[in-house]
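Researcher: We're teaching a course module on how sequence relates to structure. For the next exercise, students receive a sequence and then see the predicted structure as tokens, so they can try to spot secondary structure elements on their own. Here is the exercise chain.
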Amino acid sequence: MRVAYVCADPGVPVFGTKGSSVHVQEIARAWRRAGADVTVYCTRAGTERPADLADLAVVELRPRRADGEDRERAIGEAAAALAEAVVRDGCDVVYERYSLFSPALALVAGTLRVPSVLEVNAPLIEEQQRYRQLFDVRLAEAVLHSNALAADTVASVSEPVVRWVEGRVPGAKTLLAPNGVNTERIGPRPRGRRHPRRLTVAFVGTLKPWHGVPALLTAVTLANTDSGPSGYDGRWTVKIIGDGPGRQDLQRAAAGLGVEAEFTGAVTPDSVPGLLHGCDAAAAPYPQPQPGRDDYFSPLKVYEYMAAGMPIVATAVGQIPSIVEDGRTGLLVPPGDASAFAAALQRLGADAALRERLGTQARAAAVGLYSWDSVLSRITAALPLSQGVA
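Model: And here is the predicted structure for the students to work with:
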């Protein structure tokens, strides 16, 4: 079976360090493990190609240089050229990661009459309007409409994204397909770490406001200031794994709060497991949801923490309560409550056995429930395939 994977978003390098790059790579791996011959068609290949994907066929067509509304048209032109390349090469399935201006899926599926998947990871129209700038709203809406109706299934990573697609494109064949994790790439942390008085909590992700890292720094300050359970008086440090526009502000905030924080900068996906294994807990400190806005994310970082066997402290927002079982695979706290987050850190700091138990059970849940192979199986089950997927 030949699978054409299309990623026309120049902001998502196929071989990059972003979570979106990890997602592209893992879906390609899952297709290959299922026996498919995969070719990736993209506008940005990136430079951080993992060794196990050295032989992955990649066709890169970069958009012409342009600004503003003309840049949006340039991305659409490059995506149409990618679709032409797919048609010339032929395929048995076309799988596209939804981007704002790419008509590729509708063009390929309409020409080759092959099964098709549109993978939707976020409500990109509103996201672009809120955080960046969207010039041609009508073009973005038309592209979503034509691709979603052409797709045999629209695989959406969360229930809010399912509702968003259905609200914008009535008649789209939507499917809930939350993210997963590669439990072979991310193994469990070494057992038997002693209970030091200095503990480290890790955060993995792009340093943007909606990830809540300032709240984590505040919580660590409180945990290090107040006496915790059983008189726990250890000290937490922070390891920030990732980079982004908020890095300098976060470094200043950590210094101002007196929090010892290591900022690794952007790292390759293969480096993440080792960095996590050197820590004692992991955090997903998402902030309080904003009124009238769904938390639509399916958090890759949480699945990766689980696969690494990390005890997790996470805020109970979005999909997180359906992934992390409070007291069994992690500790959940209310969003926006730094004191509760600090108390959870103190509880972990005072109880090495609890850290070990939560991490072990988180790893078991990742292996049993959240593999990328199971994600792909859920998606392919909705396709009219003439060839089976292993």
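Model: If you want an answer key for the exercise: The longest strand covers residues 198-204. The mean pLDDT is 92.
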